[in-house]
Amino acid sequence: MREIKDSAQELIDNYADALAQNGIRLAVSKRYFESTVRERNSSANTGGVILNVIDRALDKKREEKSYHYQRNQYHSLVLTVLPTDSRTVTKGRCKEYAFLLRKLERPHIGVEPQKKCYEEQKILRKVEKRILKIIQKAETHPTVKVCRDTWRDALRYTSAAKYGYKTTILGKDYSFWDILFAGLAGLCTIAFVFTAWLIFQLFQAL
Protein backbone atom coordinates (compact mmCIF):
# COMPACT_ATOMS: atom_id res chain seq x y z
CA MET A 1 0.00 0.00 0.00
CA ARG A 2 1.24 3.44 -0.86
CA GLU A 3 2.21 5.75 1.97
CA ILE A 4 -0.84 7.94 2.72
CA LYS A 5 1.41 10.94 3.27
CA ASP A 6 2.62 10.65 -0.35
CA SER A 7 -0.98 10.43 -1.58
CA ALA A 8 -1.90 13.53 0.41
CA GLN A 9 1.12 15.35 -1.00
CA GLU A 10 -0.07 14.52 -4.52
CA LEU A 11 -3.42 16.13 -3.71
CA ILE A 12 -1.64 19.24 -2.44
CA ASP A 13 0.49 19.34 -5.60
CA ASN A 14 -2.68 19.19 -7.74
CA TYR A 15 -3.87 22.43 -6.13
CA ALA A 16 -0.46 24.05 -5.68
CA ASP A 17 -1.04 26.73 -8.34
CA ALA A 18 -4.44 27.75 -6.95
CA LEU A 19 -2.94 27.94 -3.47
CA ALA A 20 0.10 29.90 -4.59
CA GLN A 21 -2.07 32.43 -6.42
CA ASN A 22 -3.56 33.28 -3.04
CA GLY A 23 -0.22 33.40 -1.23
CA ILE A 24 -0.61 30.02 0.47
CA ARG A 25 1.21 26.70 0.58
CA LEU A 26 0.36 23.53 2.48
CA ALA A 27 2.68 21.18 4.34
CA VAL A 28 1.70 17.61 5.25
CA SER A 29 3.18 15.59 8.10
CA LYS A 30 2.40 12.56 10.24
CA ARG A 31 2.05 12.77 14.00
CA TYR A 32 2.06 10.13 16.70
CA PHE A 33 1.28 10.86 20.32
CA GLU A 34 0.01 9.20 23.47
CA SER A 35 -2.24 10.37 26.29
CA THR A 36 -2.82 9.14 29.82
CA VAL A 37 -6.00 7.16 30.50
CA ARG A 38 -7.68 8.56 33.59
CA GLU A 39 -10.07 7.16 36.16
CA ARG A 40 -13.80 7.18 35.47
CA ASN A 41 -15.68 10.42 36.20
CA SER A 42 -17.22 10.88 39.62
CA SER A 43 -20.93 11.12 40.33
CA ALA A 44 -22.27 14.11 42.26
CA ASN A 45 -24.98 12.39 44.33
CA THR A 46 -24.21 10.51 47.56
CA GLY A 47 -25.23 7.07 46.30
CA GLY A 48 -23.29 7.62 43.11
CA VAL A 49 -20.16 8.57 45.07
CA ILE A 50 -20.28 5.30 47.03
CA LEU A 51 -20.78 3.25 43.87
CA ASN A 52 -18.02 5.23 42.20
CA VAL A 53 -15.53 4.27 44.93
CA ILE A 54 -16.38 0.60 44.36
CA ASP A 55 -16.21 0.94 40.57
CA ARG A 56 -12.84 2.70 40.73
CA ALA A 57 -11.42 -0.03 42.95
CA LEU A 58 -12.61 -2.68 40.48
CA ASP A 59 -11.23 -0.63 37.58
CA LYS A 60 -7.79 -0.50 39.20
CA LYS A 61 -7.85 -4.23 39.89
CA ARG A 62 -8.68 -5.02 36.23
CA GLU A 63 -6.12 -2.48 35.06
CA GLU A 64 -3.28 -3.95 37.07
CA LYS A 65 -4.19 -7.49 36.06
CA SER A 66 -4.87 -7.07 32.33
CA TYR A 67 -4.08 -3.66 30.82
CA HIS A 68 -1.10 -2.36 32.83
CA TYR A 69 -2.10 1.30 32.35
CA GLN A 70 -1.88 1.13 28.56
CA ARG A 71 -1.94 4.70 27.26
CA ASN A 72 -4.20 6.00 24.50
CA GLN A 73 -2.34 6.09 21.16
CA TYR A 74 -3.08 8.23 18.12
CA HIS A 75 -1.64 8.36 14.60
CA SER A 76 -2.66 11.45 12.60
CA LEU A 77 -2.07 13.11 9.25
CA VAL A 78 -1.68 16.88 9.67
CA LEU A 79 -2.10 19.72 7.16
CA THR A 80 -0.40 23.00 8.07
CA VAL A 81 -1.55 26.17 6.28
CA LEU A 82 1.48 28.38 5.59
CA PRO A 83 1.88 31.75 3.84
CA THR A 84 4.29 31.77 0.90
CA ASP A 85 5.81 34.85 2.55
CA SER A 86 7.01 33.37 5.86
CA ARG A 87 7.45 36.85 7.35
CA THR A 88 3.69 37.40 7.64
CA VAL A 89 2.89 34.49 9.99
CA THR A 90 5.36 32.43 12.00
CA LYS A 91 5.04 28.67 11.57
CA GLY A 92 4.14 28.13 15.21
CA ARG A 93 1.04 30.30 14.77
CA CYS A 94 -0.27 28.67 11.57
CA LYS A 95 -3.52 26.72 11.39
CA GLU A 96 -3.38 22.94 11.46
CA TYR A 97 -5.97 20.36 10.43
CA ALA A 98 -5.53 16.82 11.74
CA PHE A 99 -7.04 13.64 10.27
CA LEU A 100 -6.95 10.49 12.36
CA LEU A 101 -5.36 7.46 10.70
CA ARG A 102 -5.75 5.03 13.58
CA LYS A 103 -6.17 5.10 17.33
CA LEU A 104 -6.09 2.88 20.40
CA GLU A 105 -8.13 4.38 23.23
CA ARG A 106 -10.64 3.88 26.02
CA PRO A 107 -12.81 6.15 28.19
CA HIS A 108 -11.15 5.28 31.53
CA ILE A 109 -8.87 2.73 33.18
CA GLY A 110 -10.20 -0.78 33.72
CA VAL A 111 -11.71 -0.90 30.22
CA GLU A 112 -10.16 -2.88 27.37
CA PRO A 113 -8.42 -0.61 24.82
CA GLN A 114 -10.25 -0.43 21.49
CA LYS A 115 -8.36 -0.09 18.22
CA LYS A 116 -9.82 1.71 15.21
CA CYS A 117 -8.30 2.25 11.76
CA TYR A 118 -9.75 4.76 9.32
CA GLU A 119 -10.17 4.03 5.62
CA GLU A 120 -7.46 5.67 3.53
CA GLN A 121 -9.73 6.86 0.72
CA LYS A 122 -12.13 8.49 3.18
CA ILE A 123 -9.21 10.32 4.80
CA LEU A 124 -7.95 11.54 1.43
CA ARG A 125 -11.44 12.76 0.50
CA LYS A 126 -11.51 14.76 3.74
CA VAL A 127 -8.06 16.16 2.97
CA GLU A 128 -9.14 17.27 -0.50
CA LYS A 129 -12.33 18.81 0.89
CA ARG A 130 -10.27 20.80 3.38
CA ILE A 131 -7.88 21.98 0.64
CA LEU A 132 -10.81 23.25 -1.41
CA LYS A 133 -12.24 25.08 1.62
CA ILE A 134 -8.87 26.73 2.23
CA ILE A 135 -8.70 27.89 -1.41
CA GLN A 136 -12.27 29.17 -1.27
CA LYS A 137 -11.59 31.17 1.88
CA ALA A 138 -8.29 32.49 0.50
CA GLU A 139 -10.11 33.96 -2.49
CA THR A 140 -12.12 36.34 -0.26
CA HIS A 141 -9.90 36.81 2.81
CA PRO A 142 -6.37 38.12 3.46
CA THR A 143 -3.63 35.51 3.55
CA VAL A 144 -2.86 36.22 7.20
CA LYS A 145 -6.46 35.49 8.21
CA VAL A 146 -6.43 32.20 6.32
CA CYS A 147 -3.15 31.04 7.87
CA ARG A 148 -3.03 32.42 11.40
CA ASP A 149 -4.60 30.65 14.38
CA THR A 150 -7.45 32.35 16.26
CA TRP A 151 -9.29 31.56 19.50
CA ARG A 152 -11.72 29.50 17.41
CA ASP A 153 -8.82 27.29 16.37
CA ALA A 154 -7.76 27.06 20.02
CA LEU A 155 -11.26 25.77 20.84
CA ARG A 156 -11.05 23.29 17.95
CA TYR A 157 -7.66 22.02 19.10
CA THR A 158 -8.67 21.51 22.73
CA SER A 159 -12.04 19.89 21.97
CA ALA A 160 -10.72 17.06 19.75
CA ALA A 161 -8.38 14.27 20.89
CA LYS A 162 -6.64 14.21 17.50
CA TYR A 163 -4.89 17.51 18.34
CA GLY A 164 -3.36 16.15 21.55
CA TYR A 165 0.12 16.43 20.01
CA LYS A 166 0.01 20.24 20.31
CA THR A 167 1.93 21.65 23.27
CA THR A 168 1.32 25.37 22.68
CA ILE A 169 -1.59 27.28 21.13
CA LEU A 170 -1.47 31.00 20.34
CA GLY A 171 1.76 31.23 22.29
CA LYS A 172 0.28 29.74 25.47
CA ASP A 173 0.49 26.26 26.95
CA TYR A 174 -2.16 23.79 25.77
CA SER A 175 -3.41 23.33 29.36
CA PHE A 176 -4.17 27.07 29.63
CA TRP A 177 -6.75 26.84 26.86
CA ASP A 178 -8.07 23.50 28.08
CA ILE A 179 -8.76 24.95 31.55
CA LEU A 180 -10.13 28.21 30.11
CA PHE A 181 -12.68 26.56 27.81
CA ALA A 182 -13.65 24.02 30.48
CA GLY A 183 -14.27 26.89 32.90
CA LEU A 184 -16.32 28.83 30.35
CA ALA A 185 -18.38 25.72 29.58
CA GLY A 186 -19.05 25.30 33.30
CA LEU A 187 -20.13 28.93 33.64
CA CYS A 188 -22.44 28.61 30.63
CA THR A 189 -24.02 25.50 32.15
CA ILE A 190 -24.60 27.28 35.47
CA ALA A 191 -26.05 30.30 33.67
CA PHE A 192 -28.39 28.08 31.64
CA VAL A 193 -29.60 26.20 34.71
CA PHE A 194 -30.13 29.45 36.65
CA THR A 195 -32.04 31.01 33.74
CA ALA A 196 -34.25 27.93 33.43
CA TRP A 197 -34.89 27.99 37.20
CA LEU A 198 -35.72 31.72 37.07
CA ILE A 199 -38.18 31.25 34.21
CA PHE A 200 -39.81 28.37 36.10
CA GLN A 201 -40.17 30.55 39.20
CA LEU A 202 -41.73 33.34 37.15
CA PHE A 203 -44.29 30.97 35.65
CA GLN A 204 -45.04 29.61 39.11
CA ALA A 205 -45.72 33.14 40.32
CA LEU A 206 -48.24 33.87 37.55
Secondary-structure topology with pairs:
Elements: H1 4-14, H2 16-21, E1 24-35, H3 46-67, E2 72-83, E3 96-105, E4 114-117, H4 120-138, H5 143-147, H6 151-159, E5 168-169, E6 172-173, H7 174-205
Helix pairs in contact: 1-4, 6-7
Multimeric state: single chain
In what range is the share of β-strand residues?
15-25%
Q: Give unreliable regions as ranges.
A: none
Contiguous helical run count: 7
User: Per the principal axes of the C-alpha atoms, what is the gross shape?
Assistant: globular
Assign a percent range to the helix content: 40-55%
Describe the sheet with the most strands: 4 strands, antiparallel
Radius of gyration, rounded?
22 Å
Average pLDDT, to the nearest integer?
Answer: 88
Count the strands?
6
Decide which structural class fits the backbone. Answer: alpha+beta
| Series of H and E elements | HHEHEEEHHHEEH
Strand order of the largest sheet: 1-2-3-4
The N- to C-terminal Cα distance equals 70 Å
Could you explain the architecture of this structure?
Helix content is 50%, strand content 20%. With 206 residues, it is α+β, with helices and mostly antiparallel strands. The strands form two sheets. The chain has a four-stranded antiparallel sheet. Strands 5-6 form a two-stranded antiparallel sheet. β3 (96-105) and β4 (114-117) form a beta hairpin. α1 (4-14) packs parallel to α4 (120-138) and α6 (151-159) crosses α7 (174-205). The radius of gyration is 22 Å and the shape is globular. The N and C termini lie far apart (70 Å). The relative contact order is 0.14. The model has no long low-confidence stretch (mean pLDDT 88).
